[in-house]
Amino acid sequence: MIGPKGEQVGVVATSVALNLAREANLDLVEVAPNAKPPVAKLIDYGKYKYNEKIKAREARRNQSTAEVKEIRFRLKIDDHDFEVKKGHVTRFLNGGDKVKVTIMLRGREQSRPVGGVELLQRLAEEVEEFGSIESRPRQDGRNIIMVLAPKGKKVQTQSEQRRRGAESRAERQARQAARLNAKREAQATAVAEAESKVAGATANKTSSQKTTSKEGSNA
């Protein structure tokens, strides 16, 4: 048996181990059932499961799982539209995602796919700072397809995005707390002023009553 701090307790009977677990208010968990003799450990099983859940969540969060975004071009695209779509490709690559770029051919364009290949190569050259060609241009029916992969690791990008998101949330929470405190202070001030007015009115009324009573007595 292994103790709660990782110390070796030694070989003990199951009943003794259960008694030790009850005395320590812990759980007796079998960690190596196939060992001879089996190995058990004294732990807080609820806390153990919670920590395992947190570790699994962090592992999923840090896992690099790039999505594949798709951008479609026309063969006869003008320079302005090309720059706009190139901006989208750059943004996707910076976000750590792969980009599937598709040139859609119409009619006679299908007999001259070279222009589509040249357009894709031009795009790849202009975004080479952010991504590289993973799948070279190839014709697939009426389309010519190329896949670009980001040069940076998505996990690094996601970590940076999470950091900025956490900072932004902290700033929003601070602003909300400041607004809430200001609102509470304003309410407290209003209540104090109202109580002061009520107290003043009560004092004036009492003073008036005393004056009236005195005048009646003199009469």
Automatic annotation (TrEMBL):
Subcellular location, principal: cytoplasm
Organism: Alloscardovia macacae
One Pfam family it belongs to: IF3_N
Lineage of origin: Bacteria, Bacillati, Actinomycetota, Actinomycetes, Bifidobacteriales
One Gene Ontology molecular-function label: ribosome binding
Keyword Cytoplasm: yes
UniProt-listed HAMAP family: IF_3
Protein name: Translation initiation factor IF-3
Gene Ontology biological process terms in this record: ribosome disassembly
The encoding gene: infC
